[in-house]
Design goal:
Structural class of chain B: alpha+beta
Radius of gyration of chain A: 31 Å
Distance between the termini of chain A: 35 Å
Shape of chain A: flat
Strand content of chain A: 15-25%
Structural class of chain A: alpha+beta
Number of helices of chain B: 7
Oligomer: heterodimer
Mean pLDDT of chain B: 89
Strand order of the largest sheet of chain A: 14-11-12-13-10-9-15
Strand order of the largest sheet of chain B: 1-2-3-5-4
Number of strands of chain A: 17
Radius of gyration of chain B: 22 Å
Low-confidence stretches of chain A: 1-11, 270-295
Helix content of chain B: 25-40%
Number of strands of chain B: 6
Mean pLDDT of chain A: 89
Largest interface: A-B, 50 and 42 residues
Largest sheet of chain B: 5 strands, mixed, barrel
Strand content of chain B: 15-25%
Helix content of chain A: 40-55%
Bound molecules: magnesium ion
Shape of chain B: globular
Distance between the termini of chain B: 64 Å
Order of helices and strands of chain B: HHHHEHEEEEEHH
Number of helices of chain A: 22
């Protein structure tokens, strides 16, 4: 049991320390060695002494620091993510040890996996003995808070009277680390509780369904599945469900032919460049360079009716136009149009954009971002916030980027724009971390690390600069009472687009039309086309769906996607879109046919919402745990009753199902 | 037949023609009035006004094919281009919005349309101003009982809706262009008289019309495999 010191009013951290004078040595524990090193470097001004720990991946950094108005010796070390795991007690661990349904109630315990023992014993238990204060420096998110409590537990077991504080930070930069040292607080047990609940539910639900379906299906389809683990997870399945759903939508889609009328007119603007003399932006020059790309021989007028799904009806209207093929300009409207600069970057948006624009998978993106963070290049990459907090000084962050030979000039422009950096503001805040932003300049990062860093910098500079501005002209014409329209665009100030090549906005020049004037189109054509099905999901689409339905958190989307890939439930097409495999299809169809929405997001989304309430202290840990165990247990029991449906759904893919004698069925 | 009865039928015929521009053939109307009086318990139970009204109701529910009484000019459906002038009452056998794919309309009708199909990762989809939602264009299969042709909602007609019951009767009037067997209708050309035809309601309900358009099996109106 973890001791939680309820201290609702945020007392001065120093007050929480009972005997400040007795504090001579402080043990600090970060989540990873990289972070420990970065933080030590800052706290010691680069003057730490490094020694080996028992675990060769986790060093110990030792230095003096001025804390609570006195000099203390700091030992900074690290873990490697979670220190403890959750497992069923021995009698239930073996696959055949019990009926899977018992796993909903079987006793569980935290244990230290073998590869973590050295850290536990060597880094923590040994070092804490000479310390009077423990400061938790794990990442400031749910998992980090929970890892913090694992560390506290291990330390208190060998030194019960150790005092404990939590450092809160979003970046490994001097300012942020110094502020963290000045505002040490209590670790938050509610946030950690939410992780405990999630871990226990994942273990019980995952193990029961995985054992049930693996044992059954291996027997029923021995030829194809004899040695295959058929895992189930309450996030995995809805994620897989989205892939299958899209695939089926494509399969059942019926294309239809449509017809449309289009008007063409010679583009007299072809080789003329028209400047609006009132515009003074230096970016006019840009027009010259892009003109040859955007110019076209003809202006196309599109039909206001867009398209008709009946040949005769379209032909009738086309004939009417052809009998009197004179276009009358009914209106010419010109109005300013802007293209908005991007919102401050949150995790989901970063994953989606990196996947679409850089072709780096979500998992890889998070791995790189984590590294960039621990090296101090960017702020904490797991955040739901897309609003910059008012107290975060953007000027110095932009200034830092003026060193760059590539985007330095743009950064300078941002500093000089009226009012300075001006972030576009989103609507979401997790109250823990700011949007992802660069914290220091680097011109030396290579490969995907360099590309992702560049993207984060460009996105940041774009979002604090100004919207791109243009003037759009819309021309409406009538041909024999059918209405058509075209539009031209003159970009007057590229602004953020100059630093953000991931967005495109192009000038389109059209001739000057006068209201009331008439002209003869060079051609009026009736063309046909076909409706097409939606496309298979990209990784970015899948993340968008998971976010929309509340599956997983921004921190875990990438993992769940990776799981369904590694289980071979889905594959990737050559253009990186998700295609369900036979096993994945069959499982989703089977569970769907039972009538429970197990491949639908609802069940998991409720769980996720309850976890949030637990972390905010608005729901009780135990009641949430019991509620969801019961709910999944009911679904489990029903699924076992209807297990034949699973066989039926899989046999079109895996061949005939083996009959299983009654008495064996009972065991399952 | 008593001259009195003949007069009642004549009066009804005149009333339908003059008040509604409905041309009901005498023989059909005779049978209709006779039946109405029988149902009412004998001649003389119903006033002329009641008979007129009830005869109108019967006409609205009739399949004009059974009346076998042409009102549209002969050869209208075959003409390349012509004009129809006057007032004509016709029956709508079926109708479909041809501005949208039948597939998406069918999914919507069955509630199997899936919002997830539209989710894509593109966060800044800017719709261009001239790409407004296409306006509905209903295409109606109409008949006067003898000649069938199509009629399209050339200009938007608020009085029409996809929910009209197959067999509903319309009054068409004014100058209407007819091309390639399609009448071009605007709001001033159409008055909905009401009614339906019992077996067309069944046979030509929206779901079935869409299935036929898509080449899907027609029976029962069940989707072969609706997307999940
Ligand atoms: Mg972490």
């Amino acid at each position: 049991a973890l001791s939680s010191v309820g201290c609702p009013d945020k007392a001065q951290p120093a007050d929480m320390i009972r005997n400040r004078a007795q504090i001579k040595r402080v043990l600090c524990v970060a989540e990873k060695n990289d972070a420990a090193k970065g933080i030590s470097d800052i706290m010691s001004n680069g003057r730490f002494r490094r020694r080996e720990g028992m675990s060769k991946f986790n060093k110990i950094y030792e230095y003096e620091y001025h804390l609570f108005g006195q000099n203390v010796t700091v030992l900074m070390t690290s873990v490697s993510g979670h220190l403890l795991g959750l497992e069923f007690k021995t009698p239930f661990q073996k696959w055949h040890s019990c009926s899977p349904v018992l796993l909903f109630d079987a006793e569980v315990e935290k244990y230290c996996p073998e590869n973590m023992v050295q850290i536990k014993v060597g880094q923590l238990e040994k070092e804490v003995k000479q310390c009077q204060l423990l400061i938790i420096w794990t990442d400031c998110d749910r998992e980090g808070e929970n890892i913090g409590f694992e560390i506290i537990d291990v330390c208190k077991a060998v030194k019960p009277n150790i005092q404990v504080l939590r450092a809160k930070f979003s970046e490994i930069t001097p300012n942020s680390i110094r502020r963290a040292c000045d505002t040490l607080s209590e670790p938050d047990s509610k946030v950690s509780d939410a992780v405990d609940v999630r871990q226990e539910l994942d273990l019980r639900i995952g193990a029961s369904f995985t054992r049930f379906q693996t044992l059954r299906l291996q027997k029923i389809f021995p030829e194809s599945l004899a040695n295959q683990l058929i895992s189930y997870g309450s996030c995995q399945f809805p994620t897989l469900g989205f892939v299958v759903e899209r695939f089926k939508a494509i399969q059942s889609f019926i294309p239809e032919t449509f017809y449309k009328i289009k008007g063409m007119s010679f583009n007299t603007q072809r080789n003329t460049l028209v400047f609006n003399p009132t515009l003074t932006s230096p970016f006019h020059l840009f027009f010259v360079s892009v003109l040859h790309e955007v110019e076209e021989d003809t202006v196309e007028f599109s039909w206001k009716r867009n398209r008709l799904f009946n040949h005769t009806a379209c032909l009738v209207l086309y004939q009417i136009c052809m009998e009197d093929p004179i276009a009358t300009v009914t209106s010419v409207t010109s109005k300013p149009k802007s293209k908005w600069r991007p919102l401050p970057l949150d995790t989901v948006e970063m994953e989606k954009l990196a996947s679409r624009k850089l072709r780096i998978s979500a998992k890889e993106t998070m791995k790189i971002a984590e590294k960039l963070y621990t090296q101090g290049f960017i702020s904490y990459p797991r955040t739901e916030t897309n609003i910059f907090p008012p107290n975060l000084a953007l000027g110095p962050l932009v200034e830092e980027q003026t060193q760059s030979s590539v985007w330095g000039a743009f950064a300078q422009r941002v500093l000089e724009q009226p009012g300075g950096p001006n972030p576009r503001q989103g609507k979401k805040s997790d109250q823990a971390h700011p949007p992802i932003h660069p914290t220091k300049h680097s011109g030396s990062l290579q490969g995907n690390e360099g590309r992702l860093y560049e993207f984060i910098v460009r996105h940041f500079l774009a979002c604090v600069s100004q919207d791109a501005l243009g003037q759009e002209t819309v021309v409406d014409v009538d041909i024999a009472q059918e209405k058509f329209s075209t539009s031209g665009l003159m970009i007057t100030a590229r602004n953020y687009l100059d630093v953000y090549p991931y967005d495109r906005w192009t000038t389109k020049l059209i001739p000057v039309y006068e209201q009331g004037s008439q002209f003869q189109p060079t051609a009026i054509e009736m063309v046909d086309g076909q409706t097409s099905p939606p496309q298979l999901l990209t990784e970015a689409d899948l993340i968008a769906l998971m976010e929309k339905h509340g599956i997983g958190t921004d921190a875990t989307h990438a993992e769940h996607i990776e799981t369904i890939k590694s289980r071979m439930y889905v594959g990737l097409t050559s253009d990186q879109r998700f295609l369900p495999g036979e096993l994945g299809m069959g499982l989703v169809e089977g569970y769907n046919s039972m009538g429970y929405e197990m491949s639908k997001p609802n069940l998991r989304a409720e769980l996720e919402a309850d976890l949030k309430l637990v972390s905010e202290g608005r729901k009780d840990k135990w009641s949430v745990l019991q509620h969801h165990i019961q709910k999944y247990k009911t679904v489990f029991i029903e699924s076992v009753h209807k297990a034949k449906k699973l066989d039926e759904a899989l046999s079109p893919y895996l061949g005939a199902a083996q009959e299983i004698p009654e008495e064996q069925q009972q065991d399952m | 037949m008593a001259p009195e009865f003949q007069a009642v039928v004549h009066n009804a015929q005149f009333w339908l023609q003059s008040s509604w521009h409905i041309q009901a053939p005498f023989a059909w109307l005779e049978a209709c009035v006779e039946w109405l009086q029988e149902e009412a318990g004998g001649a003389g139970r119903l006033s002329q006004q009641q008979i007129n009204q009830q005869a109108l109701d019967q006409w609205l529910l009739a399949d004009l094919r059974d009346l076998d009484h042409p009102v549209l000019p002969q050869g209208l459906a075959q003409a390349q281009k012509t004009e129809l002038i006057g007032t004509f009452c016709v029956q709508v056998d079926s109708l479909l919005d041809i501005s949208q794919p039948a597939y998406s309309q069918l999914q919507k009708l069955r509630g199997t349309d899936c919002a997830n199909d539209e989710v894509s990762a593109v966060t800044q989809a800017t719709q261009r101003p001239w790409e407004t939602r296409p306006t509905r264009m209903l295409l109606l299969q109409v008949t006067d009982g003898v000649q069938s042709l199509e009629a399209m909602e050339y200009q938007s007609i608020p009085a029409l809706s996809a929910a009209l019951r197959p067999g509903v009767k319309l009054q068409l009037h004014g100058n209407m262009v007819c091309r390639l067997g399609v009448l071009l209708l605007g709001p001033s050309n159409v008055k909905v008289l009401g009614g339906e035809v019992e077996d067309l309601v069944e046979r030509n309900n929206q779901g079935r019309v869409m299935c036929r358009t898509l080449g899907l099996p027609d029976e029962g109106g069940e989707a072969p495999s609706a997307p999940q």
